[in-house]
Amino acid sequence: MDSSSNEHPATVPSEAKEENEHIIQATKSLRRHMGLPEDPTENPSSATPSSVGPTFWLEVAPPSIRGAKCRLDVCTTNIMPGKYRIAVNPGCHSFRGHQSPDYYHVGCFEKIADFSQEDFVDRVQPVTRNTWQFRNLNASSVLDGNYLLDAGAERLTISWKQAVKKLINERDGVEIEDDTSEAVRDLLDNAGSSKFVPREIPDADAFELRLLSSTLAPNESDGSEDTEEWNLFYEFQMVVDGDQKSLDNRHNLDMTLYLWRDHVTLATSNNLSEELKERKEKELNPKAIRAIKRLMVTPMPDIQGAFRRGL
Ligand SMILES: [Zn+2]
């Protein structure tokens, strides 16, 4: 049927138009908040370094009865506890002189943030044991296990950020030297594999090294004979190395996290429908289930270490 026929007034297109207009305005307002010109084709009057202005924190929504309102006007669902969300801090809106963060569903934020531009990608920070203090969170709430990302989401967010930045630099012909040492790179990429041999990393924090080679390791192996080791990035990372088309997909981060969370549910829920049980059977072998159960854990801050260091 011809949707432009006269029988039905064009309600859907006009609603879509209104939604688009909201998104355009929200995009402009986010750009202003970052110190960028509203029009992306205009050069900024003075370059705003990403250390100034808001940070886009990726975190887990803490317990609350109704959840948090998503700041994207056209979004009608609240962000419920336990979901990944973006906290723009400081937020655009001040309340009695106090600037509280603006919360968004990850997918809603991707509608207004242009993650094919470095200015935006640089501001994304995962809330973890290493970063929560910069997010101005209540320590006791964090130590209760709130806000912090699980190991899988942490590794996937950091790898998303690196992969997108690499594509942006390739597109713009910018050469950035990676100053990560080979031993650290090896640990980040290969921990968990049967072929991985830990190397000495001078001056590294022992607590962090232990986490990276256990809870946070991206690989899971059945041993030295295993030719199909499980890899977190291979399974869930939506950004494809060397493929510029990946930059056109606005929802890479949300899709990556969605896929990860979906598989956590599949691997761990005792309450799966028959359909999901079938999917689990098809998609997850015991090695994958083991890997997911390990990576769904949230690495907590090293409180004992902090005491030892007298902090
Ligand atoms: Zn939303």
Structural overview:
The protein is α+β, with helices and mostly antiparallel strands and 311 residues long. It has two domains: 12-38 and 50-148, 2-Layer Sandwich (first zn-finger domain of poly(adp-ribose) polymerase-1), CATH 3.30.1740; 164-308, no CATH class. Helix content is 41%, strand content 9%. Helix 5 (151-172) runs antiparallel to helix 9 (252-268) and helix 9 (252-268) packs across helix 11. The chain is globular and about 60 Å long. The N and C termini lie far apart (69 Å). Residues 1-6 have low confidence and may be disordered. Zinc ion binds next to strand 5. Zinc ion is lined by residues 70, 72, 75, 104-105, 108.
Head-to-tail CA distance between termini: 69 Å
Order of helices and strands: HEEEEEHHEHHHHEEHHHHH
Could you say which structural class the secondary elements and strand pairing correspond to? alpha+beta
Work out the strand percent. Answer: 5-15%
What spatial form do the alpha-carbon principal axes imply?
Answer: globular
What is the arithmetic mean of pLDDT?
91
Number of helices: 12
Radius of gyration, taken over Cα atoms and rounded to an integer in Å: 21 Å
Largest sheet: 4 strands, mixed
Bound molecules: zinc ion
- Order of strands, main sheet, comes to 5-2-1-6
How many structural domains can be distinguished in the coordinates?
2
Number of strands: 8
Helix content: 40-55%
Uncertain runs = 1-6
